[in-house]
Every structure is written in C-alpha cells, then in structure tokens.
C-alpha cells in the first residue's frame, strides 16, 4: 500500500500518467514488470458530469470497453463481472441507480468497481477521497485496505492521516522523489536534512502521542 504525497504541481498525477503510459517521459524510461492490462486506474473526479443519464452498472461495464465486441455490446460474462465488482465495493443493489443520484463516496466506490473489472494486480488512485466527507473518506480507505489483501494499492492523496493508518510505504514527490518505509523510518527528525516532509513530522508526533498516552 503506497501513498504518494507532495505539494500541488510537484508531479504526483504526472507520475501516475507516466506509469500508465498516458504521457511519455521527456528523458529516461519507465520500467514495469506487469502490462497495463493488469493495472486498474481511478482518475481524479474533476470533470464528471453527474447529470449524464448513466447507471452505476453502465459505468462499471466501461471497465470492459476495450474487450467488448462491436455491434454485440457487453457479454453476460461482462455483466456478471460488473455485478461482482459492485458487490466487492459494497454497492450491490445500486446497479440501476443513476450516477448523479449517488453520494460522492458511493460514486467513488462505483469508479473503483469499474477499475476492478480489469482484474488488476495493481490499482492506481488519484485523489480518491477529494470532495468526500470524512465518513465517506474513512469508508473508501477501509475498502482499499480490504482490497489490499490481494491487490497492490497506490494512492495519490493530500490526506496525510492515511499515511499512519493505512499506507505501508510513502513516496514524497516534489520534482524529485523521496521514498519512506513507515516501518523503518527514523524517529528522530534531522532538521539539517534537505528533505523534511509530513511523513517525518507525523511519525514524530505519533511517537509523542503514544508516550503521552502511556504517561497518563
């Protein structure tokens, strides 16, 4: 479970697009051990037209769009897979609801279900909890934690609290990338280091809070 954090404009979303092959690197190369067919992608929910008359099931079926046969549409297998994906994300019974009638958290679950139709080994999510209330955010991350039992999860997020609660590793991206393993991170902050990000600060605060709790 990898969280990618960093300031706006630092290159987080660009990194995901490079991994997916949506854009090409200006220099160097991208090395992947798996094909794009095994990578699920949930993009930022920024250009969604919630007034478009489409159901949750139809959105999830789009996960098969590259495989469907022209003129014949989706197969029974495709529909069964889409229904199973909706069940995995806790959205069974909502398949005929219009996407615009769902809450932000419910819509995001539908988009995750769409990505699951690719049977991914890795799932990339770009700001999956943006514009979702706190309850919905927690539900999404609990869902990702469950999916992480069988799928590698990579999340771009500004929600730093996810680092200590869910992520196992953190990549801080600000033009350059600094990688943190949360199990082995240094507990003492070195203020002379050129890199100082929220990961170290939260780790130190977490240790302080734990000491205070034991003291009381």
Structure, described:
This protein has helices at residues 12-20, 56-61, 76-88, 104-116, 134-147, 161-165, 198-215, and strands spanning 2-5, 39-42, 122-126, 152-156, 169-174, 176-181. The model is unreliable at 186-192 and 207-216 (pLDDT under 50). 31% of the residues are buried. It is globular and about 45 Å long. Helix 3 packs across helix 4 (104-116). It has two domains: 1-34 and 123-216, P-loop containing nucleotide triphosphate hydrolases (Rossmann fold); 44-120, no CATH class. It starts with a strand and ends with a helix. It is α/β, with parallel strands linked by helices. Strand 3, helix 5 (134-147) and strand 4 form a beta-alpha-beta unit. The protein has a six-stranded mixed β-sheet, with helices on both faces. It is 36% helix and 14% strand.
Labels describing this entry:
216 residues, alpha/beta, Rossmann fold, 2 domains, 7 helices, disordered C terminus
What is shown here, in short?
The chain has helices at 12-20, 56-61, 76-88, 104-116, 134-147, 161-165, 198-215; strands at 2-5, 39-42, 122-126, 152-156, 169-174, 176-181. The protein is of the alpha/beta class and 216 residues long. The longest helix has 18 residues, at 198-215.
Spell out the blueprint of helices and strands.
Elements: E1 2-5, H1 12-20, E2 39-42, H2 56-61, H3 76-88, H4 104-116, E3 122-126, H5 134-147, E4 152-156, H6 161-165, E5 169-174, E6 176-181, H7 198-215
Parallel strand pairs: 1-4, 1-5, 2-3, 3-4
Antiparallel strand pairs: 5-6
Helix pairs in contact: 3-4, 4-5
């Amino acid at each position: 479970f990898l969280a990618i954090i960093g300031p706006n404009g630092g290159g987080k979303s660009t990194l995901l697009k490079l991994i997916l092959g949506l854009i090409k690197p200006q220099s160097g190369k991208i090395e992947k051990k798996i094909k794009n067919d095994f990578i699920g992608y949930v993009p930022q929910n920024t250009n969604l037209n919630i007034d478009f008359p489409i159901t949750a099931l139809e959105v999830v079926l789009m996960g098969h769009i590259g495989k469907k046969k022209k003129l014949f549409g989706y197969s029974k297998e495709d529909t069964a897979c889409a229904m199973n994906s909706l069940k995995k994300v806790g959205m069974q019974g909502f398949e005929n609801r219009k996407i615009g009638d769902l809450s932000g958290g419910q819509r995001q679950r539908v988009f995750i279900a769409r990505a699951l139709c690719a049977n991914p080994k890795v799932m990339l999510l770009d700001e999956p909890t943006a514009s979702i209330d706190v309850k919905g955010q927690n539900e999404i991350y609990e869902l990702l934690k469950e999916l992480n039992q069988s799928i590698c999860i990579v999340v771009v997020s500004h929600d730093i609290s996810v680092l200590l609660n869910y992520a196992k590793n953190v990549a801080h991206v600000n033009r350059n990338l600094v990688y943190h393993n949360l199990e082995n991170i240094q507990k003492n902050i070195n203020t002379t280091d050129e890199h100082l990000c929220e990961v170290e600060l939260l780790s130190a605060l977490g240790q302080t809070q734990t000491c205070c709790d034991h003291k009381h």
